[in-house]
Amino acid sequence: MKTNNINFDDLTFTFTETRSMYVTKCKRGDNWNTGELVPYGNISISPASTVLNYGQGLFEGMKAYKTDGGRILLFRPEKNAERAAKGCLRLSMPEIPKNVFMDAVKKIVKDNSDYIPPTEKGALYIRPIIFGSAEGLGVAPSTEYTFIIYCSPVGPYFKGGLSPIKLIVSTDYHRAPLKGTGGVKAIGNYVPGMLPSGNAKKMGFAEIIYLDAAEEKYVEEVGAANFFAIKDGNIITPELTGSILPGITRDSVIRIAKEKLGMNIEERRISIDEVMEADEVFCAGTAAIISPIGSIKYNNKEHIFSNGDVGNITRKLYDILTGIQFGTDSDPFDWILEL
Ligand code: PLP
Ligand code: COI
User: N or C: which end of the chain has fewer CB within 10 A?
Assistant: First the structure.
């Protein structure tokens, strides 16, 4: 049995192996059954599998936190289960039932609970993956599917935690077209971003902002996080058109802004020109939590939103969201699942 000798002091968003992973398989036409924990390790897969050849697969991401008192908290994991189920249908895979997904999440977190860092150091990132694991030469759904959850202790996604990040708008690459798979966590959505995001990082930016693929005018997302702008006390976030991932953090920020801060929310298209006039901008996601955006470069012009300070509303949203996630405040929305 592997024991945990991890130093939680300098965690970053990188992979660290833990004790176990959860595995179950399903043949096409059958229903998923609950699976079992096995020691974390490599898996064997056919070179002709549909995931390796055609990218038939999706992933999810969520975090478990450990409070000072040792309570283990999960944030809205049923929403990940729902999104994974929808993603399965879009990617021609058998729909993962909520009970199987939740059984896996609970077992993996319990078995690896000593890998959860104290909240001020990070979280245990939980990574479900579902993919076509049988061989298939023609472009057609696999005859067998595998569902695995593994996990890893992680620190902040962007260096510096809550310090404002520098972004650049991608003018040469898009993330996802309308009517494509941008609205689900298809594995194939992520590799096209590695080149533009890698180039941006070489130039000193933390990430890129994608514009819509049709008109190249409206903001879609920030790498792997949803985008928000605040103007005159209103919150504007791109509407879910199908090309944008329906983030669980996005939904939570909207509800907190509306129900706790009494703010007006506008889910609509927002042009990059309008963004440049905003008072505060930030992005939000499981890995990113809420990350304030300090500057955006677009077409050789850089607009500075902040020289290091976190905007008032961004800060309030961060405090309320993380208060609930970390278990330091009450949970008025009933979002926390305690294990
Ligand atoms: N957008 C993309 C493309 C993502 O991959 C993610 C991460 O899951 C998000 C947004 C944020 O979604 P969530 O808040 O559910 O993590
Ligand atoms: C998450 O926020 O959970 C994500 O999926 C981002 C990931 C691509 C690193």
Answer: N
Are residues 141 and 213 located together in one domain of the fold?
no
- The alpha carbon of 21 and the centre of ligand 2 are apart by a number of angstroms equal to 19
> Which residue, of 154, 184, 212, is where some domain finishes?
154
Residues 249 and 127 occupy one common structural domain: no
Predicted confidence (pLDDT) at residue 95 exceeds the cutoff of 70:
yes
Distance (Å, rounded) from C-alpha 310 to C-alpha 289? 14
- Answer whether 193 contacts ligand 1 (Cβ < 6 A): no
Q: Of the residues 59, 158, 237, 249, which should be mutated to test ligand 1's pocket, given the most ligand atoms within 8 Å of the CB?
A: 249
Domain that holds residue 190: 165-325
Nearest atom in ligand 2 to the alpha carbon of residue 13 is: 9
pTM of the model: 0.95
* Residue positions annotated with a catalytic role: 185
Cα separation values, 234 from 241, 257, 258, 280, 286, Å:
21, 9, 10, 10, 23
**Alpha carbons 198 and 194: distance in angstroms, whole number:** 6
Q: Mean pLDDT of all residues in the chain?
A: 95
